[in-house]
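**User:** Hello, beginner here. Are you able to go through the protein record under this note? It all follows right here:
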Amino acid sequence: MFARVGVVPGASANRMKQMLDADTLARDRALDFRWGVPASILEVSGIPDVADKLYDQARRSILAAACIAADEWPGDPEAWWISYSRRKEFYRNSQRYLGLPYTYDRVTRGVAEGIEHGLLEEIRAAPGAHLSATPRQSRIRATPELLRLFQDSPFEYQRRPASMVLRDGEGQPIPLPTTQAVHRLQREMDALEGYFGSIRLTLGQGDGWKHARRTLRARSDRTGNWASVTPEPCLHPVRIFSRASMAKGGRLYAWYHQLPSARRKECLINGELIIEPDFSALHPRLLHAMKGVEMRHDPYDVAECPRLHAKRALNTLINARSRMQAAASLYHHPSFPKDQAYVQRVMRAVEKRNPVIRSYLGSDAGIDLMAIDSRMALDVLKACGKAGIACLPVHDSFMTAQRNGGRVAGIMDGILARTVNALSSSRSSTKA
């Protein structure tokens, strides 16, 4: 029997260290419900059919998630663990899974059934472990028997039920307001359904790619690190708003965003090679416009550090809630040396380089700028759709066929000029 249930406090010292090792736990996947093992072959495992179809959907998703985690790291079973919650309070927020049928009873029952049939292995966290100094949840992973039964079968895709999500200050989904303005935004996203459905993204091959059955790993040329991605058949992004406000955030997110930029350019869009034009120094440019000033300089060009460090420092300052928070973020970033004096020197340099927008640095301006750039992204997509140009958004850049790169860049330039003019005019009107 491969199934095992363990409670963290009762484990041996060596096993406990292994279970609670921070690096191992950091690799745990969260339990999601994008995929399900086929109902038609579930009975092969000896699991009986049930009348409750919502429970059936939940248990099939749990088994699929375990298979996908194993597929991601086939040679390292310690990396197959999936974290999930056994707290009833965790599931009381009906928005957590956006109306999908994943309740405390269904999830815990599905896990128990998987263990009973030798398909899942579990390490159960003690009550309250999520509140400890090293928070942790219960964990499950696939057994060899689960992989033998289902790893080669086609999985069923469960598309996300909403194209817009609103999160509260802690990042948890909450209901969208029922206002006319929100309905207009929803209709705008729904209108892009056919456009994204007409786009075909073919993933790359070669040295920077490692393809598994259901997942892939893609190497970043800049850092050398490998990103793990589970491709989905749906390219329609989700628009995510933040802090319980439809005026905060609003950027578009899709699974292909996890691909490093160098790997995205090795993909094909509708069978053609890709180019990815972007808005250069977009947030500094928008902040200058909000001050009524046209940015004519390179905001990242400082003598004190490499351009990459200056870019990260300035954008971190724009997004941080304080200068102290920005310094801590930069100090702990892998691209920065662990040198507090250097971090301070770089921050001072970019502040000196951009005196017009100094009041915005360390002011949490980024979340409002995202609302602006997400509006720009939607305008680009709608213009590209009208022009018959296939285009996929990646925040402030857009994946399109190389032959259409100039046309998309022209559309972007027009929308940027219009946005900058509107922000500058607003500043002038305020002064008046």
In short: The chain has three domains: 5-157, 164-281+371-431, 300-353.
